[in-house]
Amino acid sequence: MTTSFTPLTVAIGDLVPHPANVRSNSPETYDPENIAHLKASIAVLGLLQPLLVQKLDGKYAVLAGGRRHAALKDLVAEKVEKGFTAKTKVDCRFVPEDCDVTTALSLAENITQAPMNAIDEFEAFARMMEVDGQTPETIAKTFGTTVAAVKGRLRYGLIHPDIRAAARGKVITLDTMKAFAEHPSQEAQREVFEALTKDGGYLQAYTVRQALKSRGVQVSDDIGAFVRADYEERGGAVAADLLEEHSVLEDAALVETILLEKLGAAAEEARMRLGFAWADAMVRYDYATMADYGRVYPGPIEPDEAAQKRIEDITAELEKLQLEMEDEGLEEDAYNALYERVDALEEEARDLQEAYSAEDLARSGVIASWSGGQVTLHVGLVRPEDTVKEEGARGSSAGPTGEEAPDAGEITYPASLAEDLKTERAMALGTAMALHPEATLDLTLFKLVSDVLASGMSVTQAIKIDARKEYRSHAKMDEIDETSLEQVAAAHEALDLSWLDDTRAPADQFAAFRALKAGEKAKLVAYATASTTQSCFARDRSRDSLMHAFEIEIMPDIRAHWTPNAALFNRFKKAWLLKILGDDLGLAQEAVTLASSSKKEIVAFCDKLFAEPFATLTDAQRAAVAAWCPPMMQTAGVACDEAEPAAETPEPDSEVAQAA
Predict the structure, then answer these.
(1) Does the pTM of the predicted model rise above 0.85?
(2) According to the UniProt record, where is the region Disordered (predicted)?
(3) Residues 6+ apart with CB under 8 A from 414
């Protein structure tokens, strides 16, 4: 039987709590912070749902709607919102005194008013902005929440419907669904979603974010902001987000092309101004590669009369500025402006008293790279081949080590392939670091402390403790072996991120972080440090003894985190593949047999061989397949060639050599 209750209006001042309300024994329900959003909604929209009341001792007792009643009382007490006084009447429904379902009614209302489903809330916020013309500020006011929280939810409401449906159906987690908001294009989201779920694998937030990174650069990223004007001028596609800062420059290749052009222009300008012989550009300055470069420095010169006069003027101005900076009442902005002026004058004075020699200028150059959100110039660099010539090496055919250039049959690694292999090794190393949290925590703390407290150079340049993820570019990111991605994704899923909430103040997040157990903190630090590992090859003990020893400890075998696949073999020459099969893996007969096959067939054979070593392999061949990698990728000191050879190297006139 359906019970109907008589509608009536009651003054707010005549309302009192009802003892039968099921929340009457939970006073925390009515704390100000718990009803703030409700109060804000009533102030803007009014009371949308009537209260259930019953006559009790001459007053109207609120049987259901206690939180709305508390919000109304607060509005009256604060006297801020017009139209809310003790005499203001609100809609109610009257429950007769002889009704025997009082507690049941109260309980039913409180149970049925469960919190809104998270995805429903995301979609509702998006509709309010798209359809109703609301702004994040007005939505925040309506619901009594922060603008930052609204902005975060708006992004999730515009994720592709298929992905939201997967989250509703518990096919993917809510966190995984949120990861798709990294890219505002629903088409890009759908393509990534389909690609990652085609084999029925478990989808993780980390792998989603990694896949979306190759789909463009956010306009709020420092590189995105730097190239955006040129990018749009060339007609580059922009995936627009409801919130401008989340829009994405979709053509990542065009972004990198423009960035390199701008870096190249900066390097060329410096070359012409300083008189260097050459100029070059790279997105990220690779310290491992640049370790083979030399460097020249300017020496003292005798300034001419005009230069000497300028030096004297600079000295006088510096003395004046120093006095101004000693004023304790100086505003911070004014002090910073004086400091920048002093810095510029001192640099000008140095330039007037120092210069590169003509010989040094003729063999050195400048490289521009992107660092810390700006163009950074590295001047006075000497290429390895120029350094070798200077030291009396064997002429122009000699390499950085002074050895003759390899013959055409020798395996070499083109620069583009070498750069991508460095990226893959960095990913594998990062995975190893994330899987060894205690050791990586020690390394992080050691570098942080020693860089600050010790004198001299940094203990290692291999990791950056500056709270910034390392940018990793790769020509074929969609085709690389996914072992390290899957492992680091699993490490990410194991992190305790309960403290991480963008809707809370940093101080509150910090307090929650501090409450974590030491082991959980170690995992977080290890994962963060692992994200800073730069693209790299095996360390040189003489150049970086710290990371050389550390890598041997945590990653004695890169093959635990990386497997060669078709994407790599496709970039090798046919002769190299046959040489690897015959010389490195001991598969001489197979190499001879495959010599008459197409490169495509050889690549397929190698891909299948490394994916699952054949049952017909000998123990020595199986061990060789399990250990093989390009030699510069294996951890220094445990290189592949230190293991037992899989088979004797064929003589030059052997059948394998002839086939290769």
Answers:
(1) no
(2) 387-408, 640-660
(3) 571
